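In this section we walk through a basic example: taking a raw amino acid sequence and producing a predicted 3D structure, encoded as discrete structure tokens. The instruction is simple. Fold the sequence below.
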Amino acid sequence: MNTSECLRTEVVLAEKMMPKSVMIKIIEFLKKHTDLTVDITGGCPELNPDFSFLIDSIFQVVTRLMVRTNLTVLFEKGLEWIPQWYCDHNVVVIASLPCYTAQNVDSQRGSGVFEKSIKAIKLLNDLGYSRDENLELHLVCNPGGDWLPGPQDKLEADYKKHLGAEYGISFNKLFVMTNAPIGRFKKYLESNGTVEQYLNLLADNFNPAAAAKIMFRNLISVDYKGVLYNCDFNQALDLPVIDSKGNIATIDSLEVLLAGDPGIVTGAHCFCCTAGAGSSCTGTLS
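The resulting token sequence is shown next.
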């Protein structure tokens, strides 16, 4: 692993929280590998009661610390301290905002979500996010249906134009991700009878240049139990990394795993990251 590589921790997953015991094992690993990026996800990782313990333990150890957050959680009772705390720890904030219009966001996420999200971005901007070079704020979007996303640079320009002009807010980059045919999106495809059609769309648009940069080449995903996966999609599908002895790999065996040649578990869903311009946790690939 090097500075471009990432250890992703799943702090909160489907209301199952990573215990401090697993966090401590991750912290000990990171202390031995100080050239890594840590990307914390889980929907609302701030809801984990030991979240601050994890951040406090690693923010000076790792090269880069990112948190993927639901912007609306910043207004939950008892979490009002989070924005300033992120600022003090130079946390890179990555937040989902599926569109720059209230109608589209609220139709996908629920009434009032867009308004709260804009309010949260304004709060982060006031603290220096996207305006101070040391405080990064990135937004994430994905298509609203079973099609490939448009060019990331064009969508980013549209976001910045509309959000800046209408709400006076700013952000650093827009990460555009292709919808993976798993979970709720797969159920959406099944309800429309378009699973095969969508999988064919992904396969027909396979891009070797994107495949060369696919995220499981430099990312390890750790779930709340300490089990290792090649990526978050594999984690969602319960496809763990298997070691040379045929055992499920965990944070306890990560050192040994990296010393060898760990295999990569793939499936049809992997085409979502190699289609068109490609897709990763930090947007398009090529």
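Looking at the output, two observations stand out. The chain has one domain: 6-178+214-267. The mean pLDDT is 92. In the next section we compare this with other chains.
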